[in-house]
Amino acid sequence: xxxxxxxxxxxxxxxxxxxxxxxxxxxxxxxxxxxxxxxxxxxxxxxxxxxxxxxxxxxxxxxxxxxxxxxxxxxxxxxxxxxxxxxxxxxxxxxxxxxxxxxxxxxxxxxxxxxxxxxxxxxxxxxxxxxxxxxxxxxxxxxxxxxxxxxxxxxxxxxxxxxxxxxxxxxxxxxxxxxxxxxxxxxxxxxxxxxxxxxxxxxxxxxxxxxxxxxxxxxxxxxxxxxxxxxxxxxxxxxxxxxxxxxxxxxxxxxxxxxxxxxxxxxxxxxxxxxxxxxxxxxxxxxxxxxxxxxxxxxxxxxxxxxxxxxxxxxxxxxxxxxxxxxxxxxxxxxxxxxxxxxxxxxxxxxxxxxxxxxxxxxxxxxxxxxxxxxxxxxxxxxxxxxxxxxxxxxxxxxxxxxxxxxxxxxxxxxxxxxxxxxxxxxxxxxxxxxxxxxxxxxxxxxxxxxxxxxxxxxxxxxxxxxxxxxxxxxxxxxxxxxxxxxxxxxxxxxxxxxxxxxxxxxxxxxxxxxxxxxxxxxx
Length: 524
Ligand SMILES: Cc1ncc(COP(=O)(O)OP(=O)(O)O)c(N)n1
Ligand SMILES: Cc1ncsc1CCOP(=O)(O)O
Ligand SMILES: [Mg+2]
Description:
Helix 4 links the parallel strand 6 and strand 7. This protein has two domains: 12-27 and 34-304, Ribokinase (UDP-N-acetylmuramoyl-L-alanine:D-glutamate ligase, 3-Layer(aba) Sandwich); 308-523, TIM Barrel. It has helices at residues 12-15, 49-59, 87-98, 114-126, 152-159, 170-176, 185-196, 242-255, 260-277, 295-298, 300-304, 321-326, 331-340, 355-371, 382-388, 402-409, 422-431, 454-464, 480-484, 498-501, 506-523; strands spanning 23-25, 31-33, 35-43, 63-75, 78-84, 105-108, 131-134, 165-166, 202-206, 215-221, 226-232, 315-318, 345-348, 375-379, 392-395, 414-418, 435-439, 469-472, 491-496. 50% of the residues are buried. The protein is an alpha/beta fold. Bound molecules: ligand LCLJCK34, 4-methyl-5-hydroxyethylthiazole phosphate and magnesium ion (MG). The site of magnesium ion has 5 residues, from loops. Ligand LCLJCK34 is lined by residues 316, 318, 347, 349, 379-380, 394-396, 399, 416, 418, 437, 447, 470, 472, 495. Keywords: ATP-binding, Chloroplast, Kinase, Magnesium, Metal-binding, Multifunctional enzyme, Nucleotide-binding, Plastid, Thiamine biosynthesis, Transferase, Transit peptide. It comes from Brassica carinata. It is found in: Plastid, Chloroplast.
């Protein structure tokens, strides 16, 4: 099996396509379409399985072909009956699609027998694709066994080693690991590590079923680093098909060209938004209803504008035009590298840029950030933020007042404000800011004439406000841990300029800083 970046190379015309576009036009006016093939079971209730997969891909702008492995009779009450398709017929479907279409990514769901996995593997070796996403479906949300223990051996020794990513929930992860206990995030991490040793390039262990947790935590492991992806638990009965939706959304984003972590983050946000949007709908009379994958058609705003979470401040990358010029980088390249290295939010702070040029670059950065599921804010320039439809702005005490910014940008945009004192922190809350940037914590050459407040000043600001706080000023790999160690619960991360952008390789510096922040978070 070839994997992402593997044997089949991208057509030259496609390589230049931005990740947010599904198609592009070649010189011969042929439109290339990002394509997923789902190999899964049919759900007559259409909340999960093949039907969910097709809907997600359509909602994400990707074509989805389907090979059906089994037909289930099911609804919101559960699975009433399952009919397996003969392996030869599954193979015929696979050949039909793979020999004809240029499938980018194959996503698997219900693979109910070892023979069916065998024909899948055969076809994939004959018709290689760019990536394989394996959702090791074993039990339906209602508790019906969809693939029994006979499947475990071929999953472990044949399928997992050729997968690019696997997305088990805790029960599936436990089954794949011979029944180990997985009841805490620490046990999820250890399970992700053990599963990675079975061969997949990336592992995402989904913690939605974890007992006693107020938010839903998924653990992502790339063989080197862990990422914990948090989202608030959404109170709804309409959770049928969330696993299929997440895996298909990952496949769709990969097919459009996203790196793996970005694809996973976008998919998680898509599922959260869909669940939230559909929390009150009633389809069926049972315990687990389907949700609406097409929310974007009904209410684009609710889909586009996902909610800002304090943890988004974890690794906050702030650009600088002088540094970009010094290192001969465009803003766009700087932003791409920071995101790839793990930046969780971006601010464009381009003090010397010409308005017209800044606007064009800001628009490109909005596209990149949106397709990676990372928010983009603009420093100082409310006009640019409005014109490029950024996710928000960051303003200081001598910029436009926060209450006025709020009235110009509306309730959905993110507003951050710089605070050095307790009074400023109180005011930030009253004025409707979403977060506080506090510093300079340490001396810095990036901002002239800036008073340093030290760790004590940072602590005071944190204590004075309910808002999440990000520390800024002179922070880098050598001292990020000492900042986070002040242990204030609303201190959510560090914002850095020179530690990322006044460096030869933004990507590796971002990775190192992300790793050090993750370690300090785990320790405290
Ligand atoms: C996250 C974050 N915190 C603080 C600042 C500083 O903003 P400001 O005080 O407006 O100073 P300038 O950046 O405009 O020089 C920031 N940009 N980001
Ligand atoms: C914009 C800003 N606001 C307070 S300190 C600072 C500069 C931070 O830059 P660096 O991370 O290079 O010290
Ligand atoms: Mg400012």
